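Fold it.
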Amino acid sequence: MSATRLSSVGRRASIIAAARAVFARHGLEGARTQQIARAAGVSEALLFRHFPTKTHIYRAVLREVISDQNRVFRSFGDAEASTEGLLEILLRTFRYATAGMYALNAEGLRMVLGSLAGDGGYARLVYRRALRLTLPNLEKALQAARADGGISGEALSTTNVGAFIEHVSTMMLVARCHEKTAIPYEEDRVLRDAILFCARGLGVAEPRIQQFLEQMKSCEPETAAFIRSGTPVTP
C-alpha cells in the first residue's frame, strides 16, 4: 500500500485522526488495526512503527479528545451566577452551534453521533467529561436565578438540564456540517428561538428573557459574519 510522504509527526497525526473516527464508530474492542490503517492510508506495518498496540492508539485519541474539549470550554468561559448568566450560557452554547462546520471541534461532535449509532463508548467518555466540566457553572447560575426570582416552577435536575441544552446545541451544529443545512431551520430566528425554547423550558420569567434578547441583538451580526467568513468560531 503506497502512502503519501509525510513527516513522522504528520503521519502520526493522520493515524490519530483516522483512528478517532474508527474508534467513535466501533469502540475500543470492536475497532481493528486493519481498519485504522486503511482509513489512514498506510500499511499495518507502518501503523505499528508509530504505535506498538491498539491501546496506545486509543490513548493518543483520548488525549486529543480531552485537548479539544478543553479548548471549547475555555472559549466559553464562566458566566456569572444570575438569571442573566444563565441566559448567557444559552447564548454562548447556541451561538457556537450556529457556526456548524466552522466551529471548534465540529468533527468531534459528528464522531459522537457516530458513536451513539455504534457501541456508545466514545460518546460516554465525551459526555461524562463535558458534564463534569460544565455542570458546576450551570448549577450556580440555576441556583442564583431561582434565588433572584428569575426562575419559577418545579426545579429540574441540573444534570438533565445540561444534557438537554447539549442535545439541542449538538443537533443544531451537526445539521450545519454540510454545504446545505440538513434541517430546514428558519435561519433568521434560529439563535433567538433556541434561547427562547430552552429558557422557557427552564421556567425563566418572560420579562427577563425578553430583556436579555434585546441586549443580545448586537451579537447576531457578529455571529453571521463569522459563519460567512468560514472562520472557526468560538462562543
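Residues 139 and 158 are 6 Å apart (CA to CA).
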